[in-house]
Amino acid sequence: MSIAAPVSALMAAVLPVIASSLTEGLPGPIKYAGFALALLAIWLISRGDGHQKKFHLHLADLRLPLLSGALFGFYFIFMNKGSQTATIWPMVAARCCGSFLLFWFALAKRELSWPGKTIASLVLLNAAGDIGGNTFFILAGQAGRLDVAAVLGSLYPGMTVLLAGLLLHERLNRLQWIGIAAAFTAIVLMTVP
Q1: Coil, strand, or helix at residue 114?
Q2: Are 190 and 152 in contact (CB under 8 A)?
Q3: Average pLDDT over the chain, rounded to an integer
Q4: Can you tell me the distance from the alpha carbon of 28 to that of 21, in angstroms, rounded to the nearest whole number?
Q5: Can you say how many angstroms the Cα of residue 106 is from the centroid of all Cα atoms in its chain?
Q6: How big is the CA angle at 73 (ends 71 and 179), to the nearest 5 degrees?
Q7: 169: alpha, beta or left, given left = phi > 0 and alpha = psi -120 to 50?
Q8: Using one digit for the tens of pLDDT, what is the confidence trace for 36-95?
Q9: 13-32, pLDDT tens digit by residue?
């Protein structure tokens, strides 16, 4: 997980930056510094206490995180392009297609069952958070540049780690605190006109 999360988040941020640079032009050196700092922040924040100091990484270990990040990156790019004139319908289309595919996947795996009462409310809360986050991404892309919206959206591990520290009293390590500080600095750099 300590490799999968940052690699996936980095890839999800890098592809929209490349696409935006090609379609909207280069954003300028201050924004690029913010992007670089944000990518570093994603990596640092995702590094929990459980990661090993020495590990052997093989290319096969990166295949699924890179694929996941690439698909997230393409999702950001396509959702941004498809939502330039509408906010609701691209989200409805994405959710309907995703639900349809997930239904057939669960049916094929014979894992189609409704969650229990204790889990159902968490599932619905998660769905509301997911739709809310994606809707705000669409609005951010409509208001500004794709690259800024995607990189800022990819900083979500920072909020997750920060909330885990505040609400669940999980201890953050030094690298995570540095990553959170880098994320806030990156946000300032990316929002400078």
Answers
A1: coil
A2: yes
A3: 81
A4: 10
A5: 24
A6: 120
A7: left
A8: 888 888 778 776 655 555 555 566 677 888 898 899 899 999 998 888 888 788 888 888
A9: 888 888 988 988 888 888 88
pLDDT in tens, 85-130: 887 888 888 889 988 998 999 899 888 787 788 888 888 888 898 8
Q: What is the DSSP secondary-structure string of 125-193? A: HHHHHHHHHHHHHHHHHHHS-HHHHHHHHTTHHHHHHHHHHHHS-PPPPHHHHHHHHHHHHHHHHHH--
Q: How many residues does the chain have?
A: 193
Question: Is the separation of the CB atoms in 151 and 35 below 8 Å?
Answer: yes
- The single-letter code of the amino acid at 29 is P
Burial of 140 (0-12, 13-18, 19+ CB in 10 A): middle
Four-residue CA torsion sign, 137, 139, 142, 144? negative
Phi, psi of 51 (to 5 degrees): -75, 150
Q: How far apart are the first and last CA of the chain?
A: 36
